């Protein structure tokens, strides 16, 4: 093999590795443990599920993976959990802007580099727009993600406390018809938020 051929092969292998990393969400489902698949399956039957487990066992990994799939609408073939056929409104909860950024935002969207988000579970080309969070460097207040249905998707961050209130009446008519609320140690999924009053999580 000539040097030129070796360089061509190296370029091909490098691009293959890059694509495997950028689109890793496509193969992650096959590597889940039984308890993670069971948790996903329970979202089909129940509108609210809680994953309570030991530290460093994979709660955030599981939650952010599920969030990424809902955000994009790219469900694996063997997915037995709830499916949204439209873009949804997602809230990520953290104790602070730093925690939300480092534990949830980074897993989903990656880091800001040169004005673009890269390195997260959601490929950069699906991130339509974002708004920065005031007071926390690199943290995001809102991210818009392209859903497979063609509809837009909204992500919003809540911080400075362990609870927040979501008020359906404040969601305008262009907002998606569904919620996913995630935090370190909890997740809630509400498919039909268009009701009076509010839901506190």
Detailed description of the structure:
With 201 residues, the chain is of the alpha+beta class. It has one domain (3-200). Helix content is 31%, strand content 24%. The chain is built from five helices and eleven strands. It has helices spanning 3-22, 25-28, 34-45, 59-72, 97-109, and strands at residues 48-49, 89-93, 110-113, 116-119, 127-132, 140-146, 152-158, 165-166, 179-183, 186-190, 199-200. The chain has a seven-stranded mixed beta sheet, covered by helices on one side. A two-stranded antiparallel sheet has the order 3-4. A two-stranded antiparallel sheet has the order 8-11. Strand 6 and strand 7 (152-158) form a beta hairpin. Helix 4 (59-72) crosses helix 5 (97-109). It is globular and about 60 Å long. The model is unreliable at 161-177 and 184-201 (pLDDT under 50).
Q: How is the secondary structure organized here?
A:
Blueprint: H1 3-22, H2 25-28, H3 34-45, E1 48-49, H4 59-72, E2 89-93, H5 97-109, E3 110-113, E4 116-119, E5 127-132, E6 140-146, E7 152-158, E8 165-166, E9 179-183, E10 186-190, E11 199-200
Parallel strand pairs: 2-7, 2-9
Antiparallel strand pairs: 1-10, 3-4, 5-6, 6-7, 8-11, 9-10
Care to give the gist of this entry?
By secondary structure, this protein is an alpha+beta fold.
